[in-house]
UniProtKB/TrEMBL annotation:
Name listed for the protein in its UniProt record: Uncharacterized protein
Length: 323
């Protein structure tokens, strides 16, 4: 007896699940590679939800992992607005935010859920593909790229989506990533977002200044490493640090503690340790790190611009004085 199809094995716990995105099962899509390099003779049956099933119908690719990537890219595109919610908000901010009017209240109530659903679908990994217990070889996810909890099919895809959702010209973000490296996506996004503008000339100037900055950082890195390791790190309890608000910006005691413990008391020293700062606070979230950094910059700048204030009024003046 020969069957007309190869159905992939479905583990018991996945028996009503879309292999692509984890949503409820609708139908099995019969996948034939195109071009068919391996001379596969029968379609491979892949359990799908209705949306992924319909996506698959329009895709021509030579392997199952490419099919999966194309489906994921379409989900990313279709749910870009939902995924963006997680870029623009944290769950807590959304809960605390007071929207007025029925429509906006509705947004608040459903927004985080929409984000969670979209995120779960694009991140879903399926299950290992086998037929009658024999693993199907060559299904790779080695090129996938994860940033801020969201999985992309590859670096190229991540750059495209992130450029779009942050309103950055894609070629600009590509150039910055090339300079700073793929593991520094957060840094690259921050750099692009704080650029003066996106005209051709402005981008060129920003890229030049980034090159200069990276060269300088590389030169400083060895020096900074030495100074931090040679000064025994100073420990300052959080309770000794006063929170303050400057120019309507809250300066977090956590950020102040981080700076004091490392002997960072000027904007210049902070700039040299920017990466270390973000590496430390991004474990919480990108938003937290960004907010803390902004506050700390304002604080140190104010101390420099107004030495009188720094010496006599700054509530943490004793801590800065007793270095
Ligand atoms: Zn699906």
């Amino acid at each position: 007896m020969t069957s007309q199809h190869h159905a992939i094995d479905i583990p018991f716990e996945y028996r009503h699940t879309c292999w692509f995105c984890g949503e409820p099962y609708y139908d099995s899509f019969g996948f034939m590679p195109n071009p068919n390099y391996e001379h596969q003779s029968e379609p491979l049956l892949i359990p799908s939800c209705q949306e992924c099933f319909n996506c698959c119908k329009g895709i021509k690719v030579s392997s199952l992992d490419l099919l999966r990537d194309k489906v994921k890219e379409q989900l990313h595109k279709r749910y870009a607005k939902h995924l963006q919610i997680g870029i623009n908000w944290t769950k807590e901010e959304l809960e605390d935010c007071e929207f007025e009017g029925k429509a906006l209240e509705g947004f608040r109530e459903s927004a985080w859920m929409m984000f969670e659903i979209a995120k779960a679908r694009v991140n879903y990994q399926g299950w290992p593909v086998s037929i009658d217990g024999m693993p199907v070889a060559g299904i790779s996810n080695a090129f996938q790229f994860e940033f801020d909890g969201i999985r992309y099919t590859g670096l190229q895809h991540a750059v495209k989506q992130l450029a779009l959702s942050h309103g950055i010209p894609q070629p600009y973000l590509e150039q910055v990533i090339e300079l700073v490296g793929r593991e520094k996506m957060a840094y690259a996004l921050r750099f692009c977002k704080t650029s003066y503008g996106y005209s051709e000339g402005q981008i060129k100037a920003s890229i030049e200044s980034l090159k200069a900055l990276l060269a300088e950082e590389a030169a400083n890195a060895s020096v900074a490493d030495q100074s931090i390791s040679s000064d025994a790190k100073r420990e300052i309890p959080l309770s000794e640090i006063k929170e303050l608000i400057l120019f309507r910006t809250m300066v977090s005691p956590h950020a102040i503690q981080w700076a004091l413990e490392r002997g960072i008391d000027t904007l210049e020293k902070l700039a040299q340790q920017e990466e270390g700062f973000f590496a430390h606070f991004e474990q919480d979230s990108e938003m937290v790190a960004f907010t803390y950094f902004n506050g700390l910059q304002i604080y140190l700048e104010h101390r420099e611009n107004d030495p009188q204030w720094a010496e006599y009024e700054d509530p943490n003046r004793d801590l800065f004085a007793s270095k």
